[in-house]
Write a structure and sequence with these properties.
Elements: H1 6-29, H2 32-58, H3 73-102, H4 110-139, H5 144-150, H6 154-182, H7 187-216, H8 222-233, E1 238-243, E2 246-250, E3 253-262, H9 268-285, E4 289-296
Parallel strand pairs: 3-4
Antiparallel strand pairs: 1-3, 2-3
Helix pairs in contact: 1-2, 1-4, 2-3, 2-6, 2-7, 3-7, 4-6, 6-7
Organism: Spirosoma liriopis
Transmembrane segments: 12-33, 39-56, 76-95, 115-135, 156-179, 191-208
InterPro entries: Cation_efflux, Cation_efflux_CTD_sf, Cation_efflux_TM, Cation_efflux_TMD_sf, SLC30A9
């Protein structure tokens, strides 16, 4: 089912407001962990903008340069977001923590940190709940990790993982500030920045892996593909389906190539009618399949991508 943009807008508003607040608090208190958290929220704000850009560009209609449309724009920008989380969010946080350990400075006016962290936790918590509800709506009864791996809409799980890392980062930042102030030891603050960087790096690796898989091209679910094959083989003109490669072009758009062994007695006119009939049946029963290429084939013969197919429009 199509994803809602609500979690993205919710996260965008929350992260922008929180980033500004965190940077103000960091300038007042001199907290390294707070600077890292400010950078984290700023990167997340940019991420939401890029996800919205990907969604907008993926809706562009097909043209001569992109005959199958721009659906993979969404996957590309989700991959860029995962790289930004690692390169900017994780890298800068880690660097800030190392620098603070090398040149420790005591945290001043810790009350500001606690106030900002509390406000940020509330906003990020609301954003996380919104994203989690949308993710649950999409996954249905599937297990959590199985749903992440099988999801073809990165905008949903990217925002969810971002918000989860936000909340974890806030907890770590709170502990860094609290322990640093409690024991009068600024090294806790620097260590908190490093841990935040490691959290962001771990999240980035997970998101990059899933986004890369989608960008490279994932097949439609085996159960769905099997149903398509069974539908085709029920046609009176068909002996068997020899090949059925498929690929997601976007969260709601799939291309399928069918190499079919038709009965030898069919005339050219009957073959064309059968192809049209099969095409219409697939499109009626599986709206997700936007493009179908059907090519007659012979068993035990090498199969090549068709030069002239019968596309579903």
């Amino acid at each position: 089912m199509p994803a809602s943009k609500t979690p993205i807008y919710s996260a965008l508003a929350a992260n922008l407001a929180i980033a500004i607040t965190k940077f103000i608090a960091a300038s007042v208190t001199g907290s390294s962990a707070m600077i890292s958290e400010g950078i984290h929220s700023l990167v997340d704000t940019l991420n939401e903008i890029l996800l919205l850009l990907g969604l907008a560009r993926s809706k562009k209609p097909a043209d001569a340069n992109r005959p199958f449309g721009y659906g993979k724009e969404q996957y590309f920008w989700a991959f860029i977001v995962s790289i930004l989380i690692f390169g900017v969010g994780g890298g800068v946080s880690f660097y800030e923590g190392i620098t603070h350990l090398q040149h420790p400075e005591p945290i001043e006016k810790t009350l500001w940190n606690y106030i900002v962290l509390g406000i940020a936790f509330c906003f990020d918590g609301i954003s996380f709940i919104t994203a989690f509800k949308e993710f649950n709506r999409q996954r249905g009864t599937q297990p959590f990790w199985s749903s992440v791996k099988r999801s073809k809409d990165p905008s949903t799980f990217v925002v969810l993982f971002e918000d989860a890392s936000d909340l974890l980062g806030l907890i770590v930042a709170f502990l860094g500030v609290f322990l640093g102030h409690q024991f009068n030891n600024p090294y806790f603050d620097g260590a908190a920045s490093i841990i935040i960087g490691l959290i962001l790096t771990a999240v980035s690796v997970v998101l990059a892996r899933e986004s890369r898989s989608l960008l490279m091209g994932e097949s439609i679910e085996p159960q769905t593909l099997q149903k398509i094959v069974e539908l085709v083989e029920r046609d009176d003109a068909v002996t068997s389906v020899l090949q059925s490669p498929s690929m997601y072009l976007g969260p709601e758009e799939v291309i399928v190539m069918l190499v079919v062994d038709f009965h030898d007695a069919l005339s050219t006119a009957e073959l064309n009618k059968a192809i049209q009939r099969i095409r219409d049946a697939i499109q009626q029963h599986f709206p997700l399949v936007k493009h179908v290429f059907i090519e007659p084939g012979v068993p035990n013969q090498p199969v090549h991508a068709p030069k002239h197919g019968h596309p579903v429009r």
